[in-house]
Every structure is written in C-alpha cells, then in structure tokens.
C-alpha cells in the first residue's frame, strides 16, 4: 500500500472519531438537559442513541484493525491507531454515563426536586467543553492543548466536592430528601468520571504525538 492510501485511511479514521464524539457530546448534553427539564422523552432518546454509539465504536475498532493488518503502520502512524483504540473506549464510557443519568431522570421525573439544579448542569457544561476540545486537540495533534484541557478536571472535582457537601447537609436535615440526594450525588459522580475519561483522552493524545506515557490524573 502506498502512503497515499494510508493517509486516506487515517483521514477516514479522523472523520469517524469526530462523528462518534459528536454523538457522545449530544448524549451527555441531552442527558443533563433531560434531568434539568424532567424530560423523559429526551431521556429515552439518550438511551436509544447508545446503540448507535456502540455501533460506531465497533466500526472504528474494525477500521483500526484493518489498518494494522493491511498497511502495517510504523512509528507515529501506529501510535495514532493505538491511541484511537483507547480514545473510543473512553468515548463509549462517557456515553454510558449519559445513559446512567437518563435512567435516573426516568426514575424521578414526577418528583419535585429538593433543590434547584445549578452546579450539576455547570459540571456538565465544563466536561462537555473538555470533551469537544480534547477531540479538537486530537485532530490537531496538539499536546499543549491536551495538557491544558486536563487541568480543568480540578474545577470539576471542586464542584463535585461542593455538591457532595450540600447534599450531605440536606440528607442530615431531612431524611425525606435522602433518596433524591443520593440520585443527585450519583449523577455528579458520573459527570466527574466523564472528566476523568477526557483526561485519559488527553493522555492518549500526548502518547500519540510524542510516544510519552503520561499520568494526568495525579
């Protein structure tokens, strides 16, 4: 196979990753919106979208395997494909957390919320921005941007700690609020884990470009 064929296949791989990321961003955004608006129809759409995201993961895995088998890439090209394998795994797990949030929405949509949802949507906004920017950094092979994106995880962690403290106080003050507080705590945990998955993507970008294994979760 010539270099032109390899470049064409790698460009196609980038297109697939971008499409998968767009679906995952939609899943995450819609799951948080469904929670905020108590919209079970939107929550159901998030759950149904997961099949398409899973299908895309398999499609990209197949494309990567085919590239390795047929074109025997070396050095940076091989690192790109290896990083892509890892990135789609993290994207799929982000989508799973979107489904987790949507399922909780379906459980509590009839209930009046114990508090106005402010910090959870804020967390969602931050991690969605992180996710979009990480895929942009992947496309541009930008290590510096990947490192910058990973630092936003500290903001997400701080918001999670704040939410945890507030919900703990609510549960201690009124036992009737324990059920909903537990659900909101779970949701904030899911979003915090999304930020961890984005950080993993940033690590994969650094490896792809430099061959350096980096732990950005420290």
From TrEMBL:
GO CC, alphabetical: cytoplasm
Location in the cell: Cytoplasm
InterPro entries: PhoU, PhoU-like_sf, PhoU_dom
Keyword Membrane assigned: no
Primary location class: cytoplasm
Keywords carried by this UniProt record: Cytoplasm, Phosphate transport, Transport
Pfam families xref list: PhoU (PF01895)
Protein task: Plays a role in the regulation of phosphate uptake.
Quaternary context: Homodimer.
Family statement drawn from the similarity comment of this UniProt entry: Belongs to the PhoU family.
Family matches, as PANTHER family: PHOSPHATE-SPECIFIC TRANSPORT SYSTEM ACCESSORY PROTEIN PHOU
Protein name: Phosphate-specific transport system accessory protein PhoU
Organism: Acidilutibacter cellobiosedens
UniProt lineage: Bacteria, Bacillati, Bacillota, Tissierellia, Tissierellales
């Amino acid at each position: 196979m010539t270099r032109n064929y390899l470049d064409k296949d790698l460009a196609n791989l980038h297109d697939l990753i971008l499409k998968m990321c767009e679906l995952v961003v939609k899943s995450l955004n819609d799951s948080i919106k469904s929670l905020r608006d108590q919209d079970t129809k939107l929550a159901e759409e998030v759950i149904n979208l997961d099949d398409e995201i899973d299908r895309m993961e398999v499609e990209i895995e197949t494309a990567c395997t085919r590239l390795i088998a047929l074109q025997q890439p070396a050095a940076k090209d091989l690192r790109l494909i290896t990083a892509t394998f890892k990135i789609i795994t993290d994207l799929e797990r982000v989508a799973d957390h979107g489904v987790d949030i949507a399922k909780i929405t379906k459980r509590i949509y009839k209930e009046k919320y114990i508090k106005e949802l402010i910090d959870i949507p804020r967390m969602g906004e931050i991690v969605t921005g992180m996710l979009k920017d990480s895929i942009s950094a992947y496309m541009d092979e930008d290590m510096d941007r990947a490192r910058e994106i990973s630092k936003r995880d500290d903001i997400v962690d701080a918001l999670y700690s704040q939410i945890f403290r507030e919900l703990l106080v609510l549960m201690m003050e009124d036992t009737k609020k324990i059920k909903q507080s537990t659900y909101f705590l779970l949701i904030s945990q899911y979003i915090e884990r999304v930020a961890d998955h984005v950080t993993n993507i940033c690590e994969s970008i650094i490896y792809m470009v430099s061959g350096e294994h980096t732990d950005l979760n420290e």
